[in-house]
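G., the chain you wanted modeled:
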Amino acid sequence: MCTSLTFQKDGFYCGRNLDLEYTFGEEIAVTPREYEFSFHHRPSIPRHFAMIGMAHMDGGCPLYAEAANEAGLYMAGLNFPGNAWYASCPSPSKENLAPYELIPRILGECATVEEARNILENVLLVDTPFRPGLPVAPLHWHLADARQALVIEQTRDGLHIYPDPAGVLTNNPPFPFHQENLRQYLNLTSAYPENRLGALSLSPFGQGMGSIGLPGDASPASRYVRAVFYKWNSQCQGENQCISQFFHILEGVSMIRGTVRTPENQCDMTTYSCCIHMEKGIYYYRTYENSQISAVSMEKAGKDGNTPKIFSLLQSPQIHWQT
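Predicted structure as tokens:
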């Protein structure tokens, strides 16, 4: 369960909510240009674009949940259980990648969505774990630059690349459903509603009644509609306002601990939210327990070198006392 979105107002921003019932050892990782990415079914990439994002470090290798590269390209993996399908063995006619390899492959060598699309059209995702005992996550991906966004899904009938004009992605069902479902909400408006009941003299008894019908539950379909509505009706000016606004949008589709339970009766919740300033390479984030926005700069961390730089998350509440 996750929500990813793009946002373009006084700058270009991308980010997501990561909704899980557990933590995966997440840390912010800045991978410099000379770190060698190894792959199971293709040659390694010894030099590439630097990137920043949230990752699980395993044996010194960053396994990214989402990241952005120095060229301004963003990619995030979101949960897609029951629909994600990976081949059991590689194909000699395809570029074979394990699912966890897709982000470093694309962000490592592509500066734009169009460059990425050219690679993706020949990709086959193979059911290969990073190491024995580490499960392969069922994912689909959100890919974006300042010009456009795509959704990448590999199901049993092949790898699909969908245009995403709304710039939003959640989880199941497959992406065409979300695009079709959005057509049911054409009536939603942030404006003060008009009386359309003819001769009856009626007026709204409160603000916000133009958006009656906006779904408020935590399901992927409802979060998708809500995120699109919030994003496209947002008003902000200047960098600081836009970063704050981005987190407010994500907050509107976040999961409160205890309100959503998994089949195993675990609490699904928004473990962290992030907003990446794509032009500056700054990764802003906040966690479930710490609502204060913190930040890591790819520029300050350094884009050159061969060792990822790791930043632990500030998890404890940060309360500013006024005296």
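The two ends are 41 Å apart (CA to CA).

Shout if anything looks off.
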